[in-house]
């Protein structure tokens, strides 16, 4: 999938579908949350990978590129040997964080009830 061109076939100008398609994949919000946990400091690729151990190197790379393309993450390359690359959240990402944190709080508050409903649904 070429991640920089997501457009809804039926509603190509719908901003909510377009933005949610990019942000609500398996990894994007988790990467943003992980970068936020680091505070205002930039984070190196391997540090991110350690913090999210079940993400593959390729998927982390694709996710970071997508977040950078959409203006949520900055990527800084330092001309050293070996090259050092750091990632940090942008001002746009910081405006998104209250909504992400509210979603996390909601999920924590409702997790047990949701899991119970899932168990009941499996027994049907």
UniProtKB/TrEMBL annotation:
The keyword Transcription applies. GO terms for molecular function: DNA binding. It comes from the Bacteria. InterPro entries: HTH_HxlR (IPR002577), WH-like_DNA-bd_sf (IPR036388), WH_DNA-bd_sf (IPR036390). Keywords: DNA-binding, Transcription, Transcription regulation. It holds the Pfam family HxlR. Residues 14-115 form the HTH hxlR-type domain. The keyword Transcription regulation applies. PANTHER family: TRANSCRIPTIONAL REGULATOR, MARR FAMILY, TRANSCRIPTIONAL REGULATORY PROTEIN. This is Transcriptional regulator, HxlR family.
């Amino acid at each position: 999938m070429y991640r920089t061109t997501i457009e809804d076939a039926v509603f190509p100008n719908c901003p909510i579908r377009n933005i949610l398609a990019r942000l609500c994949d398996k990894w994007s919000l988790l990467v943003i949350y992980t970068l936020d946990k680091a505070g205002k400091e930039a984070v190196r690729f391997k540090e991110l990978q350690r913090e999210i151990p079940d993400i593959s190197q390729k998927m982390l790379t694709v996710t970071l590129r997508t977040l950078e393309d959409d203006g949520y993450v900055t990527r800084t390359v330092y001309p050293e040997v070996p090259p050092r690359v750091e990632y940090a959240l942008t001002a746009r990402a910081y405006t998104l964080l209250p909504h992400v944190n509210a979603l996390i709080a909601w999920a924590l508050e409702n997790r047990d009830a949701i899991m119970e409903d899932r168990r009941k649904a499996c027994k049907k």
